[in-house]
Amino acid sequence: MASTTAEQQMVHVNATDARKFVEHVLVGNGVPRENAVIVSRCLVEADLRGVDTHGINRIPSYMARIREGVLDPKASPTLRQVTPVVAQVDGRNGFGFLAAHMGMAAAIRMAQESGIGMVSVKHSNHFGMSAWIVQQAVDAGMMSLVFTNSSPALPVWGGKSKLMGVSPIACGAPAGKGRPFIVDMAPSVAARGKIYKALRRGEKIPTDWALDKDGKQTDDAAKALEGVMLPMGGPKGSALAIMMDVFSGVLSGSAFAGHVTNPYDASKPADVGHFLVAIKPDLFMPTDEFKDRMDYLYSRVTGSERMAGVDRVYFPGETELLRKEERLERGIPLVHAEVEALNKEAQRVGAARIATASPSVKSRL
Ligand SMILES: NC(=O)c1ccc[n+]([C@@H]2O[C@H](COP(=O)([O-])OP(=O)(O)OC[C@H]3O[C@@H](n4cnc5c(N)ncnc54)[C@H](O)[C@@H]3O)[C@@H](O)[C@H]2O)c1
Q1: 70 C-alpha to center of ligand 1: Å?
Q2: I want to staple 318 with a disulfide (CB 3.0 to 4.6 A). Which of 109, 195, 314, 330 is the partner?
Q3: Does the pLDDT of residue 3 top 60, yes or no?
Q4: Which of the listed CATH numbers 1.10.10.60, 1.10.3720.10, 3.40.630.30, 1.10.1530.10 matches domain 1-67+331-365?
């Protein structure tokens, strides 16, 4: 992950400035301030962790949905307690970030009281990077499962056209002295957001990510978006995508089986479903013992004998945390076209332009 010429041509945005900018644009589009604070924190967290595909660059597409009246900027989610350990959140077609945030907060509360909390979320929208919800649980000392469904992008194994979403499967566990365990992965070879990012930045994509509309391999992002994503591990990736739809779509009462709307399609509501679980890690042993065991696992994994050409073995979620440390220091890199797209949104609502600077420190990753 060496610093490239392209990266040096980028401008950098400080995380606090990015949050303020997003907050102002959201408020300018009718989002209540307390909700804008949550959404901006989640988006900037994705940029900080290096998941630029699901960060502040999503603002133009989200605002287009508000303008077209298919995402309700004023909606706040509601919660219904079903049993002492089960709750249901209705996202009421507001931001997915708000519904998922409320859902995980409820799951954590139930887990603190009863050991486990499970929340089904319906009528929601895209919630960006799943890892921020896993981190919400880790910050409360909880293990978690975070599932969502999403719009069709992937054929099921043996199929030809898009049916399932590249819906990320995510989970996590806190540690003691080591870094927490955070898995957050789309069941495709690459997340579709990486193709949108390549399109925005005029970059080629690897030929094993997607097929064009004629079923041929392509390195062209625009052609890939007209075609289908490829599942990771063949039928296994396809099965995981269906699993996300069973738990998030079928169970919740939201859209499923290929009927979730793409976040870039502002013609109708998305009706996304999520499935969230929090688990208290001291159910079967004292907390300290659990943490020691996590630390032992971390040291065994990261201390593995390395294959040729590998400098360091990382724990899942670790590269993102290292990236965050770096970006907190040197800022979030954006290309000029992305900055302009963001400033266009600011201009529409009379908000200030995003504050940018040239990078002063080279990337260490
Ligand atoms: N909300 C949605 O509908 C939606 C849809 C698709 C993707 N996404 C998001 O897109 C993001 C990107 O997904 P992705 O599948 O491209 O992720 P990825 O391939 O970058 O990473 C997948 C997992 O592998 C781990 N990993 C990566 N490199 C590693 C290394 N060298 N050593 C050890 N572990 C390593 C990461 O920590 C992560 O947990 C995710 O945050 C996901 O939530 C969201």
Answers
A1: 28
A2: 314
A3: no
A4: 1.10.1530.10
